[in-house]
Amino acid sequence: MKVDRSSLICPSLLSCDLARLNEDATQMLEMGADWLHMDIMDGHFVPNLTFGPPVIASLRKAQPDAYIDCHLMVTDPAKWVEPMKKAGASGFTFHLESEMPEGGVPAMIKKVRDAGMRVGIVIKPETPVDALFQYVNEIDLALIMTVEPGFSGQEFMSDMMPRVKELRQKFPDLDIQVDGGLSPTTIDAAAEAGANAIVAASAIFGSKDRKGVIDALRAAVDKRKVRKTGS
Fold first, then answer.
1. Catalytic residue among 42, 140, 175, 179
2. In what order do the strands lie in the sheet containing 118-123?
3. N or C: which end of the chain has fewer CB within 10 A?
């Protein structure tokens, strides 16, 4: 029985103990996480200010084999491509709502691709999902925000699930990521809608059983996919 898109569990290190960033990253990978999710915020596109290329470079040095999944919440993502490439980012996911270089979104996609990183596009809750459709065949991942971007610990927006479902129906081979408020109590809705890449922050790092949370998130995604392909 074949499972279609693989489950990808992506702990967001924004919620880890930042004084123990590498130790927490190592723990996540040892507990079975697939990707290390890094939220890059410039203090302009969103109010918060977080990681930048130097932190990514330090993490890459400490974790040479890890997939570092970078979500760019920045005003001008094109300016970040080369620094993030040099820092060692594996994936570069930019906001459709941000400023684009000359040539627009296709030029931005090409710039990331040419830098050797996987390309993702993310949309805020207010952006219609069909704004993504024309670009999906050129990208590796679509990220649907299930909170307003910028801060960890917000409540999961279940009304975003119809857009995940529509994306999955139209693009069955796409990695669809969800980010915001994901936990063992909300994962079923996301999995049923068709999300396979799950970003979780406080649900993992705030738990006394971090591995149990990772396992629960994966089990929900895999259960939905096995049931779908086996029906």
1. 179
2. 8-11, 197-200, 175-179, 141-145, 118-123, 91-95, 67-73, 35-41
3. C
